[in-house]
Amino acid sequence: MFKNKENVGDLQTQDGTASTDQEKANALSSFFKQVFTQEDTSAMPFFEPRTTRDPLEDVSFSQENVKKLLYHTFYVYRLT
User: For 10-67, how does the pLDDT look when each residue is reduced to its tens digit (9 = 90+)?
Assistant: First the structure.
């Protein structure tokens, strides 16, 4: 369903050019490791457990409904 027919072109890295799939994957991994930071989870706030008066007891969904929702999310919202 979500197949990409285009290849990623060669990438320029600090060490030269990444041209194989493995080299490109490593270059992109290295880039995103530098861009995104790791969150300090040692000082997370504490929340008291919550209870609900009306718990969900009968939850049902179908494969078709999930497909429709995913299609709508990925394709319709991308167009706006």
Answer: 999 988 999 999 999 999 998 888 777 777 888 888 889 888 788 888 888 899 999 9
pTM of the model: 0.42
Contacts of 8 (CB under 8 A, 6+ apart): 24
Q: What is the separation of C-alpha 11 from the centre of its chain, rounded to a whole number of angstroms? A: 22
Reduce the secondary structure of 19-73 to three states and give it as a string. CCHHHHHHHHHHHHHHHCCCCCCCCCCCCCCCCCCCCCCCCCCCHHHHHHHHHHH
